[in-house]
Please model this.
Amino acid sequence: MSLSARKLIAFWAPLEATWLMMALEGPLLASIIARLDSPKLNLAAYGVAVAIAMLVEAPIIMIMSAATALAADRESYRKLRNFTFALNGAITVVMVVAILPAVYARGSAMLGLPAEVSTRTWGAIALFIPWPAAIGYRRLYQGIMIRQGATGRVAYGTGIRLVTMAASGLTLAWWGGLDGASVGAASLSSGVVAEAIGSRFMARKQVQALWASRGSPDKSPLGYRAIVEFYYPLALTSFLNMGIQPIVTFFMGTSRMPIESLAALPVVNSLVFLFRTLGLAGQETTIAVLAQGRENLPSIRRFMAALAVVASGGLALIACTPLAGVWFGRVSGLAPALAEFAVLPSCILVVMPAMTVWMCWQRALLVSHRTTRAVTFATAMEVVGVVAVMFLGNSLGWIGLVSASVALVVGRLVGNLILVGPVRRATGGQSPSP
Model:
């Protein structure tokens, strides 16, 4: 029997709340850092440190999808846990190596960081050392909870993270012993570590259920080789996704109206991301629901189609109406000229949330069928599409942020279209789109 829309919403809503809470972290910490000494230097250093930490964490990000898809019994849980711990150890070593004086000095020189920024960045990276492993640890247990339907506990864990992070940031800012970049890094690391501990505690019943499950005698046990073959395309996908933003930033810096474009980009991105989260939460929902039975495919397909309409419709309601002036001017605090500048790119990106839902649907189906290589290829072609359009836009003298908006839409469309064939083959021609 397929799931009702009400049950799907109840399953999806806590995951959506989780994404929205994570979307609040950046603005909250930036507002704290901006009120401390030397805000420009510390915000710059914090931004570089976060970028490095996120790049190091890229291989572990998709472990939640892997756990949702693969953690079916005692043996699969045990091997997936060991795989996660080994990967956590490796990325922690990378973080430690990154702050070794000789290594860091060379990296800082390559990035061209001013001395005042470089010193602050080093301290922030050192405080980020626990971050990647904590991310991997909590995503493992969050995936297990999602697979067994305990999505509310995932949201509680993120609530713990947000409260811990805010309390740490305010306390450290009041104490005054650290510069702003270090306050941000310490706060974010504290929040993620608290979330990891909380997630393991809240997943105890789900873990006990896995330990009690011996699996089906008709299925061969999950091996480490199978985990690696399943997972490494997802890890490569994360790396490629991390590369899109620096590429866009580089091209905008050499485009028409670069200062205005770079200033408005994070504000536009934050607005679009709010609506993209609907699809990101839908990806894990789809994987978990399909793990319970293929009879749920029609219901989850209709649900994802509705999310696509709501996501892009909601963005259009703000970006392409007089509400844009309210959002960019009063809420985001942009000057009138810059607020007006952000409207056209936002309208171009109206389709992005719906395309994100489509992409998440495609990825969820491929993950559910344990066919992940196509995801990496599609992401690589998405990056190629972004680069090609940005190069063309700059050659034609387009405004940088307009070029970026068109490039992101075209790149995502390329990725979507490339996955149509693999999804059709994986599902027997049933679900190329929601």
